[in-house]
């Protein structure tokens, strides 16, 4: 178990950070719809994710270059790792981010934003329990309570209820749901690791930089393997030239990562995840109504699943005093 000193924040500061996390959750719903479309037009969800990371990294480099404190924080990173004040493995937050964005590009066109969100809720809530229990985030170890376990179980049950009664509920749909679940689980680790980098360096932008560099490196490696396996065919960039607005998802991803790194120490990984999920759930159904995909279906089962997910959020907030 990794112990870290508890963070002390005034109530007002926690409220501001919770509001920021809630807003970031709404951004996630819109980003998911855009990334799903980008994955569809390029024909490759990994290529769509790489484009997102490339846009986010380009914007981030401009921001860091313009801020002296950010440049100094970046230069301090190697020393922090060498002195072991920052474990080397927390630099892997970008791996989790790459899995999540790839999951958006691969699954949302088949599932719709709302169902994708319910699946990620289960993964993110369940793994947040583990992340908090073993102190992987910047807040240190947080005990697992009965309410938190029930919340994770209820959220998982919500996935199956939401997916039942769908016309495409065969093995393919279940496979997409599993990938979405794993993508949500990845977000819990991403928030924890990026939060630790932000606390160690004093700069959320440094955490975002590590996230995007590692994630983009992984995605480009996967694309290279795909290209070799398919004799050079690994999706197409041509449709993006006609629809450049699809690249705005990269900016949204940058906004989310920076916000997560800034807020997670005050809220803890589980509470941060729940606040983000609340914002995402509110936006997800609206996105499926306003900008539906071919696979989007607002069914009674889906709404019941979302309601159960909301209940799991309430249960998980119950903490030992």
Structure description:
The structure is a single chain. Helix content is 77%, strand content 0%. The protein has helices at 11-42, 45-65, 68-82, 93-111, 113-133, 146-163, 171-201, 204-229, 238-242, 248-267, 269-290, 300-317. The two termini are 21 Å apart. With 321 residues, the chain is mainly α. Mean pLDDT is 79; it is low at 1-8 and 167-172. α1 (11-42) packs across α11 (269-290), α5 (113-133) packs across α7 and α6 (146-163) packs antiparallel against α12.
Characteristics:
12 helices; 0% strand; single chain; 321 residues; mainly alpha; disordered N terminus
Tally of individual helices: 12
Query: Rounded to an integer, what's the Rg over CA atoms?
Result: 19 Å
Proportion of strand residues: under 5%
> What would the average pLDDT be, to the nearest integer?
79
The helix/strand class is mainly alpha
**Secondary-structure element sequence?**
HHHHHHHHHHHH
How does the major sheet shape up?
none
**Outline, from the CA principal axes?**
globular
How far the N terminus sits from the C terminus, by CA atoms, comes to: 21 Å
Contiguous runs where pLDDT drops below 50 for at least 5 residues:
1-8, 167-172
Number of strands: 0
Helix content: over 70%
């Amino acid at each position: 178990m990794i112990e870290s000193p508890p963070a002390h924040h005034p109530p007002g500061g926690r409220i501001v950070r919770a509001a920021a996390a809630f807003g970031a959750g709404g951004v996630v719903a819109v980003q998911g719809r855009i990334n799903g479309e980008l994955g569809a037009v390029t024909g490759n969800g990994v290529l769509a994710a790489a484009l997102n990371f490339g846009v986010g990294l380009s914007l981030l480099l401009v921001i860091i270059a313009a801020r002296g404190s950010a440049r100094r924080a970046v230069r301090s990173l190697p020393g922090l790792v060498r002195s072991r004040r920052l474990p080397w493995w927390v630099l892997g937050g970008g791996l989790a981010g790459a899995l999540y964005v790839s999951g958006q590009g691969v699954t949302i066109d088949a599932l719709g934003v709302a169902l994708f969100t319910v699946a990620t809720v289960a993964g993110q809530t369940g793994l947040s329990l583990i992340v908090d229990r073993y102190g992987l985030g910047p807040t240190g170890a947080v005990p697992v309570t009965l309410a938190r376990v029930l919340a994770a179980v209820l959220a998982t049950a919500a996935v199956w209820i939401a997916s039942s009664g769908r016309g495409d509920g065969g093995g393919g749909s279940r496979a997409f749901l599993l990938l979405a679940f794993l993508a949500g689980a990845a977000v819990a680790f991403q928030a924890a690791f990026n939060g630790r980098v932000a606390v160690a360096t004093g700069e959320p932008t440094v955490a975002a930089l590590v996230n995007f560099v590692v994630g983009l490196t992984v995605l480009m490696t996967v694309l290279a393997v795909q290209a070799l396996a398919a004799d050079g065919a690994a999706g197409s960039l041509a449709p993006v030239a006609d629809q450049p607005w699809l690249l705005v998802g990269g900016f949204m991803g940058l906004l989310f990562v920076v916000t997560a790194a800034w807020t997670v120490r005050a809220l803890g990984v589980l509470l941060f995840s729940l606040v983000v999920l609340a914002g995402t759930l509110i936006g997800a159904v609206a996105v499926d109504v306003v900008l539906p995909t071919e696979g989007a279906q607002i069914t009674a089962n889906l709404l019941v699943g979302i309601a159960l997910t909301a209940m799991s959020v309430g249960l998980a907030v119950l903490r030992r005093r």
